[in-house]
Design a protein that fits this description.
mainly beta, 407 residues, four-stranded mixed beta sheet, Immunoglobulin-like, 2 domains
Length: 407
């Protein structure tokens, strides 16, 4: 079967499902696009990134990543032989795609862009909205979750930049080298984080800074690391490095495939310090969209409202991250209604110091990708009556990670 005929067959499958169909990423082989869904205005363009390298093998891979014969990690998101990638649009009246993967929005509607390489292909869903508007600008936020584990609602983290949150905090199981999201937004592992080790069969969700599993030159880089020495957690071996740029593989979401979270590396990321600040109301666009809450009388945390928020009928919301958790009290059913309207919950999951876990249910500590100095990185920190989106977090302390995916 020649390549052109296989491409025709694959495209026929995509067309038969349509935009709303259940099209699985990485349907054949391990080829993949770093973008699974994009939204454009009429006339806009977007460069898709295809991350496949035919010169690497999976057999020596770690956490699903690939290494060459010299033991060097493949750089995800780089097209190694772009002339061999074949691109196709399921509906050229909605969007076209060039021979290099540049998508051009033609008219309002939805279609799929298929990228085919050797014996593998992947699909990016494209939605085109009218020029001068956005579906997020004109429509109320919607709740629920995508098929890759993100909330459907959108949250601004900078001017003109929106993200979707993961459906729960990041969790890791060392015995199977598996990453996943918590099953509910308000759930956390708690005291069982004290069992963190290379052989632990349970789940943990409190991690030292930059412990994605990427061997960057840091002394400690595995997610179960419990060293109390801050200098052990330098990505790339340098205290001045953030979890971005050449060291972005130290970001848990970029380096790892997340089970039921798209199952491929490069889809998720951690917020920067400035993005946490923006999100929690350091600007007029986000003011009034954050508040403390308690769910079912048990789970304390911060509620984040999406940009286009519509309060469910019969419920109330009191904004203010410096307030106490009881300023908003929801039953499990009421929280479900809030979640269905697009709200996100950041639980007070405590912290870990070595193998000692403290403040579960009363304090929240969440990493950013931004360092401060050799001892600290920026983190979100909150408890009843207080919240700081740019707190000093000692690198060695185990803190929560809540991933996002860019719109």
């Amino acid at each position: 079967m020649n390549k052109q005929f296989k491409l025709f067959c694959l495209l026929a499958i995509v067309l038969s499902f349509g935009f709303a169909g259940c099209i699985k990423d990485n349907a054949i082989g391990d080829s993949y696009l770093l973008q699974s869904k994009i939204e454009l205005k009429v006339g806009e363009t977007y460069q898709l990134t295809f991350g496949y390298d035919a010169g690497y093998t999976q057999s020596s891979g770690f956490f699903g990543h690939e290494y060459n014969s010299s033991g060097n990690l493949r750089q995800y998101g780089t097209v190694y032989d772009e002339s061999r990638v074949l691109w196709q649009s399921s509906d050229t009246t909605v969007a076209t795609v060039s021979a290099t993967g540049l998508v051009t929005a033609v008219s309002t509607g939805e279609c799929n862009i298929l990228a085919y390489y050797s014996d593998g292909y992947d699909v990016c869903r494209v939605k085109v909205v009218p020029n001068g508007s956005s579906s997020g600008d004109d429509e109320p936020s919607i709740g629920g979750f995508t098929d890759y584990g993100a909330v459907n609602s959108l949250f601004s983290v900078a001017n003109g930049k929106q993200v979707r949150f993961s459906r729960g905090n990041l969790q890791y199981q060392a015995s199977t080298e598996t990453w996943r999201f918590a099953e509910q937004q308000y759930l956390c592992v708690g005291s069982d984080n004290a069992n963190a080790s290379a052989t632990y069969t349970g789940w943990i969700d409190l991690f030292g800074w930059g412990t994605s599993g990427w061997n960057s030159g840091a002394t400690e880089y595995m997610p179960y690391a419990t060293s109390a020495t801050n200098g052990d957690y330098y990505p790339g071996g340098d205290a001045a490095n953030d979890l971005t740029g050449t060291n972005d593989s130290a970001d848990w979401g970029l380096f790892n495939a997340i089970a039921a979270g798209g199952d491929q590396a490069g889809k998720w990321r951690t917020l920067t310090s400035s993005e946490w600040n923006y999100l929690l109301g350091s600007n007029s666009a986000r003011q009034g969209k954050c508040g403390k809450a308690v769910i079912d009388g048990t789970y304390n945390g911060i509620v984040l409202l999406p940009d286009n928020w519509v309060l469910p009928s019969g419920l109330t919301f009191n904004a203010g991250i410096s307030s106490d958790f009881t300023s908003n009290s929801y039953t499990a059913a009421q929280w479900t209604a809030m979640e269905d309207a697009g709200a996100v919950f950041i639980p007070a999951a405590g912290f870990r110091d070595g193998t000692s876990v403290s403040n579960v249910g009363t304090h929240g500590y969440y990493w950013s990708t931004t360092h401060i100095n050799g001892t600290y990185a920026y983190a979100l920190y909150f408890f009843g009556g207080y919240a700081n989106a740019a707190d000093l977090g000692a690198r060695a302390l185990g803190r929560s990670v809540r991933l996002v995916i860019d719109k």
